Description:
The chain is mainly α. The chain contains seven helices and no strands.
Amino acid sequence: MVPIWLQAGFWGFVAGAALLLGAAIGYLAHVPRRVIAAVMAFGSGVLISALAFELMDEAYRRGGFDSTAIGFLAGAVVYTAANVALSHRGARHRKRSGERQPSESKEPGSGLAIAMGALLDGIPESVVIGLSMLKGGAVSLVAVAAIFLSNIPEGLSSAAGMKNAGRTPAYIFSVWGAIAVASGVAAIIGYTLFQQFSPEVIAATTAIAAGAILSMLVDTMIPEAFEEAHDLAGLITVAGFLAAFALSKLGG
């Protein structure tokens, strides 16, 4: 019997590995920016649905409105503060597929900031996978699927932008490979660290992740999607939302 904490790490790694898959597509294939934006919009819709029906609803059931609301706002505040700090160091356009990402020669230290920003974007999602296993030891396959589907366009768009900025393949794939591993570790932490905590604390932590994810969507993914997809961005986002919503109902 595989220990539950190891299962959590496995599922966290699987979801994080989608970033590496997307990065490989973005670096090795010439994907039109409009297609990248469309996939990004779809991934945004998937994540919005997942955080609404999997995270916030679960947090509310576990800990009630107070814990959920406090955690949700706290997650948004913490993510926004960290994102602002990293943006001022060159990570503002880390999800952009075009020419906006700075090169290391133009902005020294931006490579590290981009890597830290990518880690900041991925950790809340992975912690959620571990938290989902606290109720009976079974992972939320809907959450894993939603995070996996949304991570592919994240890695794709960001890797295309890194390539345009002149960053080496070693840098690009080491960043996303390290984040995939970190995703597995974060899922393990999400399961092992919170086993002994009260439902209110678990609810608040789940809501913190939801707040961070929603802030990340609005700050990084949706701007990239709208910039290229324009009027179709909303429709494609709705399609992603509906796909994840259907998945959650079928999984339920």
